[in-house]
Amino acid sequence: MTAPSQHHATATPTEQALDSTTVLSWKAPISFAVITALLAVLFLTTRHSGDATFRLSAGNDLIQIPEVTLNGPVTTWTCIALLTAITVAAAALVRAKRRVPLWVVVIFAVIGLIAFLTWAAAGARTPVIPLPGLLAGALSLSVPLIFGALCGVISERVGVINIAIEGQLLAGAFTSAVVASVIGQQWLGPIVGLFAAAISGVLVAFVLAAFSIKYFVDQVIVGVVLNVLVIGLTSFLFSQVLAPNAALLNSPPRLQRIPIPILSEIPLIGPMFFRQTLIVYAMYVIIAAVYIGLFHTRWGLRLRSVGEHPTAADTVGINVARTRFWNVSLAGAIAGFGGAFFTLGAVGAFNKEMTAGAGFIALAAVIFGQWDPIRATLAALLFGFASNLQNTLSVIGSPVPSEFMLMLPYVVTILAVAGFVGKVRGPAAAGKPYIKA
Amino acid sequence: MSDRNDPDVALETGAQVPPDEPVIEKEPEPEEPSRWQQALREIATGNAIISVLAVLLALAVGAIMIAFTDERVQAASGYFFARPGDTFVAIWDSVAGAYSALFQGAVYNFRRPDFVSGIRPLTETLNFATPLIAAGLGVGLAFRVGMFNIGGRGQMLLAASAAGWVAFSFDLPFPVHMIVATIAGIVAGALWAGIAGLLKARTGAHEVIVTIMLNYVALYLVSWMLRTQGLLQAPGTNNPKTPPMKDTAIFFDLLGPQFNLHFGFILSIACVVLVWWILDRSSLGFQFRAVGLNPKAARVAGINVNRMYVYGMLISGALVGLAGVDQVLGTVTTGFSSGIDAGIGFDAITVALLGGSNPWGILAAGILFGAFKAGGFSMQAAEGVPIDIVLVVQSLIVLFIAAPPLVRAIFRLPQPGSKPKKRNRTARTEEVAAK
What we know:
The complex is a heterodimer.
Chain A lengths: L5 E4 L6 H4 L2 E4 L1 H19 L5 E5 L12 E4 H24 L6 H21 L5 E3 H27 L7 H19 L4 H27 L4 H24 L3 H4 L8 E2 L9 H6 E2 L1 H19 L1 H11 L1 H6 L4 H28 L10 H11 L4 H24 L5 H20 L16
Helix pairs in contact in A: 2-3, 2-4, 3-4, 5-6, 5-11, 5-14, 5-15, 5-16, 6-7, 6-8, 6-14, 6-15, 7-8, 7-14, 11-12, 11-14, 12-14, 15-16, 15-17, 16-17
Chain B lengths: L6 H6 L10 H4 L8 H11 L1 H23 L1 H7 L6 H23 L8 H4 L1 H25 L7 H18 L4 H30 L3 H20 L37 H18 L1 H11 L1 H6 L4 H27 L12 H11 L4 H25 L4 H15 L1 H8 L9 H14 L1
Helix pairs in contact in B: 4-6, 4-18, 5-6, 6-17, 8-12, 8-15, 8-16, 8-17, 9-10, 9-11, 9-15, 9-16, 10-11, 10-15, 12-13, 12-17, 13-15, 16-17, 17-18
């Protein structure tokens, strides 16, 4: 594996060195080179000579964009050339002691994806990729992951490792379904259900906070056990109460999609971002609020200080236990709210263990996103996209077995944790109970 | 927070607070409590009582849930103020019915005429406990090295696939075939977990994330192999299922054909002894524990911490792999699908926590959870109480045991090593002042 190639490049042993200490990381160029080589090997071993068609607008869009047809071999090899160029450029940047900016990584990813999609579609039975469906589906698979990841970011930044995201999502899904069913009605039920979901997430977080902050129990242990507890509780109540009375307790009205007037007509991104339910619009607001709150307010500064160095925070008069308790609860509210997407935003009725490991993927997104709300959101989007890519490819009949596509996000995460992220550490005090001397 | 200086805190953080610490001798007191009072106090503040009370509390919460969701109770509570007795009778019926079904499904069935069929539930309990003990030991050993192995599912799936493949596709004589299949499974589990250990040692990748991700990778890998002819899928079918294991490879029954208890139980017991020996008697175990307690100090003492991470994960994965082998060669010998792990990889975490990561504790915890599983199925069949209640009770037990101060507060037990209130307080202030 790639050894951690971080070292401090101190230029000259004069006073210049003091103000120009930069951290060099060869991880990005090395990873780029590996991915480019892998794609090239894939395209060489399995050649697809056909064309690939990208459909850019759905049938009912106001503005119709013609389909784009790309020749398989030409496009793939052009992309490989571009990827190689980016790799070389990244290597040059690092040599010049500069960092590889995030947008270069994003461009690299997009070009890599276009190459892969073209290659896969060119060898498929029906070589048409419906991009609007692919993107919209990816976003809806990502929504609970994003909520879960934001929950994880807040609680780990304040110093409490939150493995219970899965339980909080599940509690939110359960509560919102039951509350919305009992209240009924087109709008009132789902909206009250959303608030109830947030409250149920807070309740799970209370247990996590009480055990880890008051009783100093290992946070990972409490999180794991809470997941089991919530799975047990919801499954028990589902079999015992919900299933026999499904009409009364488990048939919530689903949230309606609200297209935003002008924005929703933008080709490609309009249907993806602006023809969504209330939960998704709330998600945009929450992402922005968490980002601004964490890095540009007093609340965020206190929160991060408690997670990095609780003793110092305590010395300047911040109540560590209280700060942790309420922020973990806030994180729980966000995850619980997101859990409602499983029921009110997607299928409607609750089912046993319907979160199916989304909380753990969200946790991976937190680490992949380096405990930053924006990066964690992007990571969650990537996971959602990869899962939906598998759906699309299995519909068009791609040559890759669907299991390998499903595996992709997890393999990428392992590679990322080992390569990209590596020894980059999270909040210093995360996982350590603060015992006041 | 007044309880921060408590000995409880020290207890939970791992420091040793001997229960029979002669506090009295340190600070001589005018009136010594009598020997009986002292003995009572030791029982009330010991760890055993906490475990028992935690189980009782969890069962009580389970009873409340069973009673509240029972339809007969709901019907009777409709006219509670007219005839309150009916409600209590209904509550008693539902709770006693459920828990006696649990007991009869887990220990001894009194409704059977003879002892042999009456004791069958107990052997079922041990049968369910077999993989739980093996996997619990794996998770517990990783805990002692300071690592958290959530990858039990993936390791079990890979181990089951390897053992199953050897068991159904080779022709070997009886004991050899069984041994080869077992070893294949154990090696597969060890290697799969070893990936996480190696990545942690070489790149610092967090083992929690890597093992979670490896679970999914293993699930999809095994699902793919299960639907691909020539790998694991039974020839000539379309189901994602393997052919049955050959008779020469399966674990033989220990108590004759009328009981399901198989040779794997002996292996699990042997593993308990082995892990105890590794952790408590071997030099490797000493290094494991040193790394688990403080990796930096261990490194200073000359222990190769990264190597310990890899070894710890390999042994942990081998033990979890044995649980996967138990499943294919002992429990489900007629061919398996991708659900072969049966959630044992996650149950093992609670088993290890309940057992305090100590081999003998894990043995007891594994048998207790095996009893819950065996009894849970019969409770579901006899009383219609969903088996998910078992998950609730299990997780509550672990939560309560993890927080002794909570249990003591609920039952108003004295704190360990403490004496009547007033003196206790003065002793505490002195301690703080001395710091």
